[in-house]
Structure formats: structure tokens, C-alpha cells
Amino acid sequence: MKTRVLFIALIVLLLAAQAGATDFKGKTIAGVRFPFFIPLHNGSNFTTVTGNREPFMMGWNFGAEVKRGFGSHVLIGLTGNYLTTHDDTTAVENAGGEFTSSKHATAKLTGLMFGLEGQWYYEPDWRFQPYLLAGVGLDFWKVKNVVSSVSHKASDFNFKIGTGLLCPINDKFAIDAQVKLTTDIVHLSQDFPAGFYGPNDWKKYSNRPFKAYLEPTLGLNLFFGGELDSDHDGVPDSKDKCPNTPAGVKVDKTGCPLDSDGDGVPDYLDKCPDTPKGVKVDANGCPIDSDGDGVPDYLDKCPDTPKGVKVDAEGCAPDADGDGVPDQLDKCPDTPKGAPVDANGCPLDSDGDGVPDYLDKCPGTPKGVKVDADGCPLVKKITEKITLNIKYATNSYEPDAKSKLQLDSIAERIIAYPETKIEIRGYTDNRGTAAKNMTLSENRANGVMSYLVSKGVPAVQLTAQGYGMDPKYYVADNATEAGRAKNRRVEIESVK
Questions:
Q1: Which of 34, 306, 332, 440 is deepest in the core (most CB within 10 A)?
Q2: Which parts of the sequence belong to the OmpA-like domain (predicted)?
Q3: What pTM was computed for the model?
Q4: Confidence (pLDDT) at 17
Q5: Residue 326's closest CA among 339, 349, 310, 337?
Q6: Which residues, including other chains, have CB under 8 Å from residue 7's CB and lie 6 or more apart?
Q7: Can you tell me the distance from the alpha carbon of 155 to that of 360, in angstroms, rounded to the nearest whole number?
Q8: What DSSP line would sit under 141-183, residue for residue?
Q9: Out of 128-132, 295-299, 391-395, which region has the weakest mean confidence (pLDDT)?
């Protein structure tokens, strides 16, 4: 897992650099760095009285260094670091992923590290400087029992590899992000008795809790030395306000490329070198023409002209009817003043009834409804109560053919006025039981509702209710067949 983390860190640092320059030749660099080091577990061979585990946690790392530049690519220097952390008696694996704490500690680890390192920088002309490093050094370790205060020491010769990214702040200071892997390769001395920390002494690396450690750190570097001119424009870096000027470009006394017309685009890139002062320009130094009509914005009085439209010297296209659509694109050139139009210059007809919005007195007409010259439905809104005496087939609740013709007309009137709410009521005569008649009246009301929905009436405009043989709703005498026929009815009425 830690190897994968290291690999990802290396790749990120290697891909991070883009543009700028620092010449190290003749420079002395002093720096400090912090904050972390991560012991890398030596494997399952390390055993304590509590079992196989990875004891030491991520800890603090404080260092100082001094380096000397030997050319534009190479730095060689000395480093010194102080490391400290604790173990964790509860950790079985991945202790290095937790930060040091004495809460569960039995031992404190400290170390003094001294190294000789060389750093190789990829490209001196980049502003941010990625580099590789390698070196050797000496490690002096001490493990102290936090209970008894007894301590023992070991020393080793090590080998180092790593990578980093140097980020200059100015010509004197730089931030140095670095990841370094140190591996102890030669045992020099130790006085660990068997059982003090691990079952054996520390002569063999397999008996130690770790033999390598990772140092992810940030450094602050201070540069000493002569004046540099990284871009070779004749202006030293300390005075150069444009330190990345391309070779051969003429510069002013501050090291910046000349810009004769002051448009922010240097002369060597400016394809329109005589632009008037204050005019906004593109990357080529030419006045911006946002609508592409050939008239630059600073002269264009109609800056949003559609593509391909011919314009006058002021960037405007003729628009005889003043609807905002130039004559060249206007398919309705005589639109009355103030009438809203579409992209073709024609009056809007939001409900698609053939009457433009500016003339439409009924602007929300549903699609397909026939309207008059004012855009209003030809059919009248239902305001009266409509009674249907439907002749039903046996065991059927579907309206008969004659009633369907009447319902078709009713459906048109409902659809034409979407704000209308219709109640459909079913009634019976007094023959049969109350329960049976209630069901019958409900089914017949629902049958009418279903037929209206099938003709396009939105269901949200309709409600159906059965009232059965309730005497208060009789409209005729049930003593006669004619009276009972009148009572067996369906009523349709607007409730809104």
C-alpha cells in the first residue's frame, strides 16, 4: 500500500511542472524543511511480546540543508534531520498511516540523520523545477522505553532516492516539495539487548521494526549568489518583471517585451500593432469583433448582429419594421410596431391557434381548438346543466350511439376551456335495492367520464359521482314508466 502511495506521489510531482526558469550555477542554497517521516514496516518477521505488528507511527521530521549549484541542472549538498515518533501497542498493521501519539506508546523513537545528496533538474527554462535526487547518509537511532526511561541506540549507512518540485517565490526564496525514500543498507553499530524491542538484538534488519522510511516534506530555500539572467534578455532576474521572455524578443528596461500600442499584446505577437489606446483586443492584438460582422466592437453600435447579416459602417443591419430582426432575415417585414416576434421576425403565436399573440384575446387556447378572429374558441363554454337520458344495453355502462354524438359535442366544449371543471352525476329510479342502484349510478357516471376522456378531455377536468335512488334527486314521478325514465339520467354540469 505504501509503495503505491509513493508511486502516485512521484507521478504527481513529475507531471506538475510547466514554464519559467532558474539557473543554479554558482548559487548557494540554504534551507529548512518539515514536517513528516513515515517508517516503512520491515515485514512479518518483526515480533514483540504482543505479536506480529507494525509499531512505529508517522512522526515529525525537522531538517536543515545547504546545497551548491554546479551548472544549471545539478545541485549537490549536505542535509541534517531530526526525526521523532512513538510506537502504538494497539497497531497490528499500517501504523505508519497514523500520526504519532504517546497515548498507547511503550517506546519513543528519535533519529539524527546526515546525508550527502545530489539533485538533477530536468529543464532549466521551466518556471517550476521538477527534479530527481539520490544520495547516501548516516542514521543514528535511539529507542527509549517511556516507562523505564531505558534507551538503546543503533547506527546505519543508508541510500536515498526521491523526487521533488522547486517552486520559486522570487529570486531569493523558493518552496521545495519533496518525497524521499531512505533505506538503511549497512549496519554500523547497535547496543540493543534481545527482548528490549523485539525478541532479538538489532544487528539483523529482519529483527527490526523497519529498515526504510519515507519523508514527504516541504522546504523553504534561500538563494545566495550572483545575478542571474534566466531568459538571457539582458535584464538580470532581480530586475526582470518578465523572466520568461522568449529568446530574441526586444524588451524594455524591466525585461518585458515591447508593446508599442499598449494593448497588452507584445509587438512580437501583435498582428494589429496600431490599435487605438483603450480598445479591447484578442490574443493576436486585434480589436475584438464579438458578432463577426467586420466592424470591431469599439466602433460597433449593434454588437449582437446575427452571423452573415450585412451591416453598415456602424455595424448595424437595416430593420424596416423595427422588430429587432434585420430585413435580410425577416420573413414578416411588415410586423406592427411593438408586436413580439420570433427569430424569423414573425409575430409570436404562443398557443398555435393561427392568431398572433398581439391580436389574441384568448391566448391559452388548447391545441386543435377552432377559434374566431380574436383567437377565442368557436364553441361556447358549458354554463348550463346538461341532462342525458342514455339507453344502456344489458349489463353495459357505455353510452348509446345517440348519446355519444351529444357527448362528442360536449367534449369539444370542455377541451376548449381548460380552466372548466365538470361534475358528472348518475341517478336511478326507485326500482331495486338502494345498494344496487348506488353502484349502478356510479358505474353510469364513470362510463360517461371514461368516454369523455377517450375523446381527449383531460381527466383532471372531470369528476364522477353516483347518487343512486335518493328521493331528493327525483325529477319525475316513479309511479309511471315515463317518470322513471326521466329519473334514470346522467347530468353534466360545470362547477367552475
A1: 440
A2: 379-496
A3: 0.45
A4: 37
A5: 310
A6: none
A7: 96
A8: EEEEETTT--EEEEEEEEEEEEEEEEEESSSSEEEEEEEEEEE
A9: 391-395
Burial of 316 (0-12, 13-18, 19+ CB in 10 A): middle
Q: Which comes out higher in pLDDT, residue 81 or 88?
A: 81
Backbone angles phi, psi at 404, to 5 degrees: -65, -40
Side-chain-side CA neighbours of 9 within 13 Å: the count stands at 20
Residue pLDDT, tens place only, 391-425: 877 667 889 999 999 999 999 999 999 999 999 99
- As given in the structure block, the three cell numbers for residue 142 are 535511539
What SS3 class is residue 408?
Answer: helix
Residue 80's pLDDT is 97
> With the CA atoms of 442, 447, 448 and 451 taken in that order, what torsion angle do they form, in degrees rounded to the nearest 10?
160
| Predicted local confidence at residue 255, as pLDDT | 87
Single residue among 199, 224, 249 that ends a domain in this structure: 224
Rounded CA gap, 388 and 62, in Å? 97
The overall average pLDDT reported for the chain is 86
Pair type for strands 173-190 and 422-426: unpaired
Residues near 103 by beta carbon (within 8 Å), at least 6 away in sequence = none
Cell 517552486 locates to 167
CATH code of residue 486 = 3.30.1330.60
State the amino acid at position 304 in one-letter form.
D
Instruction: State how beta strands 422-426 and 490-494 pair.
Output: antiparallel
Asked whether residue 412 is domain-assigned, the answer is yes
pLDDT tens digits along 259-270: 888 898 998 888
* Residue 149's CATH number: 2.40.160.20
Can you tell me the mean pLDDT for 162-169? 94
Question: Which residues are paired to 82 by β-bridges?
Answer: 62, 112
SS (H, E, C) 356-393: CCCCCCCCCCCCCCCECCCCCECCCCCCCCEEECCCCC
- Establish if 463 belongs to a structural domain: yes
* 490 φ, ψ (degrees, to nearest 5): -125, 130
User: Is 331 within 8 Å of 346 (Cβ atoms)?
Assistant: yes
Query: What confidence score (pLDDT) does residue 50 get?
Result: 53
- Going by the DSSP 8-state scheme, the letter that residue 347 receives in this structure is B
Nearest to 24 by CA among 61, 62, 76: 76
Q: Is residue 456 part of a domain?
A: yes
Segment (H or E) for 2 = helix 2-15
Separation CA 415–CA 44 (nearest Å): 82
The type of residue at 23 is D
Q: How far apart are CA 63 and CA 97, in angstroms?
A: 21
Do residues 122 and 14 make contact, with C-beta atoms less than 8 angstroms apart?
no
Positive or negative, the CA dihedral 19, 22, 24, 26 is positive
Beta carbons of 372 and 360 less than 8 angstroms apart: no
Q: Locate 274 and state its grid cell.
A: 496600431
What is residue 133's predicted lDDT score, i.e. its pLDDT? 97
End of a domain among 224, 245, 271?
Answer: 224
Answer yes or no: is 117 within a domain: yes
Provide the 3-class DSSP secondary structure of residue 104. Answer: coil
